[in-house]
Design brief:
The complex is a heterodimer of chains A (653) and B (150). Chain A is α+β, with helices and mostly antiparallel strands and 653 residues long. Chain A folds into 4 domains: 1-165, no CATH class; 170-400, no CATH class; 401-477 and 488-500, no CATH class; 507-611, Tick-borne Encephalitis virus Glycoprotein, domain 1, CATH 2.60.98. Chain A is 64% helix and 12% strand. In chain A, helix 7 (119-143) packs across helix 8, helix 15 packs across helix 16 and helix 16 (448-472) packs antiparallel against helix 17. The longest helix of chain A is centred in the N-terminal third of the chain and has 32 residues, at 201-232. Chain A is globular, with a radius of gyration of 27 Å. With 150 residues, chain B is of the alpha+beta class. Chain B has 3 helices and 7 strands. Chain B has a 5-stranded mixed β-barrel. The radius of gyration of chain B is 23 Å and the shape is elongated. Classes of the chains: A alpha+beta (653), B alpha+beta (150). Chains A and B meet through helix 13, strand 1, helix 14, strand 2 and strand 8 of A and helix 1, strand 1 and helix 3 of B.
Chain lengths: 653, 150
């Protein structure tokens, strides 16, 4: 009964989203404010219905209702409760329902927190979101219904993929989806602005907090995914240039360009057409990511099922979205006025360079991700593009980007004075150079790569600190967007320093270990003292006890495991990690090796600065959240003025 | 020279475009030199695979062929028609098993063995790497073609 209720409310929500996609937009066309006013209640109602549907599916999972096909395929009565709940999005159908929950949730948030926006704008934004929702509703109802029943009812479920039985999975997909789907809000604002024919500072101002918060979620989601891969896949990597990772990185890169470009549009009225294109691109790349991950053209832990109709559906949806929005763009773009003039060296020109570098980086990732798929689809052979390509391309694009970041934050709008900027940054530059040359000697190995990485990290970090100190010395209230900006930049610097540290100084040892053997990675050494069998709730494991010494003093005992889950033949490596401020010690247990005395292959890592990656990501996320919550975006009196101007202009149009 | 706004805009566009062009040239060049092609064991033995260049082979791990010496391992990859010995140092992935699909990436040495830098077996027990499946299909096709011949 409960699953049918879920199905019913999902269908009802689909009908509402269709109404939301048609009525308010029709209202803006006919200047009918009654129809426009329907947007808010419709958006809220469809969110409530999707939430109800989601709750029904969660109920089926928590009560082991294996008559529901999707539950039977992704859960098991032995699975611990928190994972039973997380299993709701452990497969294709449920994760799509989560996606819908997020999408309607964003629309509901826009409906609730848009009191300062003119009604006609709200109607357009929610209408566009409604149309996007319709597309996904059709997708879920026709190709991926999570409420399909199974007969005969199996005694128990097939269990969740052991890789996904992890706290990381509980939060990684929801955060990533919040980011992906959040880009649809930026998209909806851009399309609404195109529909109204008014691409102005007001539009950019309304769009900014939404875009920044979506970007923060996306950043957090990507960071969590990387963290999960690092400790759960068991082999110490944190970024693999896997197509699925690239699928989330591309919207992030374009989204980053978008939040910077939106700033120029708001402050100077420039880059309008470019900003709109970036918003369309960010959303299209989110859809492309969904296509890559969900269609089965890629095989990875994320590709749950290979069903060609799903891939075709998303591809058609993507074509419609891109085609329709670019057509609208081509129709409206000629009316877009140019913004204020800009100097050769100015805040604007730095922002332009930022956009160009980020978009080229996105293009490079897109090429490396899609090319093998296209060649394969055309039957021209099988090939792969590996990490060497991405590393080779990415680093040279990020170096100038990080370099221009600092002058970009201090340059004046319109026309910057180079001599003044050089003067202002001389201490920051000198300190970064000294640290870049000096710090590597602490690790006894100096390389040009590590020096460059440290220089860029320090340059950005000190540049951000410099900005904050300078601002504090001046009077006046400092807005959230100022703190957010520099906190996020500082976080980026921490990530850069972390990457430089782990890339330059990590040490790996693959060894055969018997009981009592010792392996050393100076100043640490590891001794295998015991090997025991452990029983988990739904698995059996072999667990190694490894004593860790630093300069011959015992500092910790680590317990890496090799797990075998009952419901699948699939073994799992569960690494043991000791984290500290300066780095991680990472131990994973391999297979037993036959021989006269029992021994195992094991892998030991010293991974310096890895925790800096996660810390940097958290700083960037907090920066985004603080910037989005800036009071400036919610100021009533100013918005009220914009509102009257906005309504006067839309009535005149 | 007098920087009128018009000229400035033009210079900016020109500058932007040249950065873009340089970046594109660089990306395509890096791309060209980092493509890793895939070959089946049969293709390798026919000499179609490049010498001194990294490539991938795929197929099944031949049952009974896995040998370990400390962390050095060797195994035979077969597409049921031809076999290739693969040598690898390090920990094998969790899902590596005899009789299951595998993909190895590396270079061929003078003895015709692959010195693998990477061994891939993916995240799901029922999943066959598409490259490995492709190799088996090709060998099966070749055999079928042979048996039809008089």
């Amino acid at each position: 009964m409960i699953p049918e209720l879920g199905q019913f409310s999902l269908v009802l929500a689909a009908v509402l989203s269709l109404l939301l996609g048609i009525l308010p937009l029709w209202g803006t066309y006919r200047y009918n404010t009654t129809l426009q006013a329907l947007a808010r209640p419709l958006a809220l109602l469809q969110f409530i219905l999707v939430a109800l549907s989601f709750a029904c599916l969660a109920y089926a999972f928590l009560n082991n209702d294996f008559s529901v096909k999707y539950v039977a395929a992704h859960s098991n009565s032995l699975l611990p409760k928190p994972y039973q709940f997380a299993a709701v999005w452990g497969g294709h159908e449920g994760s799509l329902l989560l996606w819908m929950l997020m999408l309607t949730g964003w629309a509901a948030a826009v409906a609730l927190f848009s009191q300062s926006l003119p009604l006609v704008m709200v109607a357009r934004v929610l209408g566009v979101l409604g149309l996007v929702t319709v597309g996904f509703m059709l997708f879920i109802l026709f190709t991926s219904n999570p409420f399909d029943r199974l007969f005969p009812v199996p005694a128990d479920g097939r269990d969740l993929n052991p890789l996904l039985q992890d706290p990381g999975l509980v939060i990684h997909p929801p955060m990533l989806y919040m980011g992906y789907v959040g880009m649809s809000v930026a998209f909806a604002f851009a399309i609404a602005a195109l529909l109204s024919g008014r691409l102005d500072a007001a539009w950019a101002r309304w769009s900014r907090p939404w875009t920044v918060i979506a970007w923060a979620f996306l950043t957090f989601g990507i960071g969590l995914g990387s963290w999960w891969a690092y400790y759960e896949l068991g082999w110490g990597g944190w970024w693999f240039w896997d197509p699925v990772e690239n699928a989330s990185l591309m919207p992030w890169l374009v989204g980053t360009a978008l939040i910077h470009s939106l700033m120029v549009t708001e402050k100077r009225g420039s880059f309008k057409a470019w900003t709109v294109l970036l918003a369309i691109a960010a959303f299209s790349l989110s859809l492309l990511g969904t296509f890559l991950v969900r269609s089965g053209v890629l095989t990875s832990v994320h590709a749950f099922a290979t069903d060609p109709t799903r891939g075709v559906f998303i591809l058609i949806f993507l074509a419609i979205v891109v085609g329709a929005s670019l057509t609208l763009f081509a129709w409206r773009a000629p009316q877009v006025t140019l913004g204020g003039s800009m100097g050769l060296i100015s805040r604007e020109s730095f922002m332009l360079l930022n956009s160009v570098l980020l978009v080229v980086a996105t293009g490079a990732v897109l090429l490396g991700t899609l090319y093998p798929l296209i060649i394969d689809a055309l039957n021209l052979g099988k090939l792969s593009v590996g990490p060497p390509y991405f590393n080779l391309v990415f680093a040279p694009l990020m170096v100038p980007l990080l370099f221009i970041l600092v002058p970009g934050t201090i340059a004046r709008w319109r026309e910057a004075n180079i001599a003044e900027m050089l003067m202002e940054l001389r201490w920051v530059a000198a300190a970064s150079v000294v640290l870049a040359i000096g710090l590597p000697f602490l690790w006894d190995s100096w390389s040009i790569g590590s020096a460059l990485g440290i220089f860029l990290g320090m340059w950005v970090a000190l540049g951000s600190l410099h900005n904050m100190v300078e601002r504090l010395r001046k009077p006046g209230r400092i807005g959230g967007s100022f703190w957010g900006q520099h906190l996020a930049h500082f976080g980026l610097a921490v990530v850069v320093l972390g990457i430089t540290g782990v890339k330059s100084y990590e040490v790996e040892r693959d060894v055969r270990m018997s009981l009592g053997d010792t392996v050393s990675i100076a100043p640490y050494s590891f001794r295998l003292v015991d090997m025991v069998d452990v029983n988990g709730p739904n698995y059996k494991a072999t667990q190694a006890h490894v004593e860790v010494f630093k300069n011959d003093k015992l500092i910790d005992v680590l317990y890496p495991e090799k797990r075998r889950y009952f419901s699948s033949a699939m073994p799992m490596t569960e690494a043991a990690i000791r984290s500290s401020f300066l780095g991680d010690l990472y131990v994973s247990l391999g297979d037993p090796i036959a021989g006269d005395k029992p021994s195992w292959s094991m892998r030991f890592y010293h991974k310096p600065f890895v925790p800096w990656l996660w810390a940097g990501v958290l700083l960037m996320v907090s920066g985004g959240v603080i910037a989005a919550l800036d009071r400036r975006y919610r100021r009533r009196n100013l918005d009220a003025q914009l509102k009257t101007v906005g309504e006067a202009m839309s009535n005149a149009a | 020279m007098n920087w009128t706004p018009r000229r400035k805009r033009f210079a900016l566009i020109l500058g932007g475009l040249s950065v873009l062009a340089a970046a594109a040239a660089f990306v395509l060049n890096a791309f060209q030199s980092n493509l890793v092609f895939f070959f089946t064991p049969s293709q390798v033995l026919r000499g179609e695979a490049p010498i001194n260049k990294t490539f991938r082979i795929g197929g099944m791990v031949k049952t009974g062929s896995l040998q370990r010496d400390g962390t050095e391992v060797s195994f035979v990859v077969t597409d049921t028609a031809q076999d290739i010995t693969v040598r690898y140092t390090g920990l094998l992935p969790d899902l590596f098993k005899e009789g299951k699909g595998v993909v190895a990436q590396g270079k061929i040495n003078a003895q015709g063995e692959m010195m693998a830098a990477e061994v891939l077996a993916k995240h799901d027990e029922n999943y066959m790497p598409p490259e490995a499946q492709h190799a088996l299909d090709q060998a099966a096709k070749a055999r079928a073609a042979q048996s039809v011949k008089p």
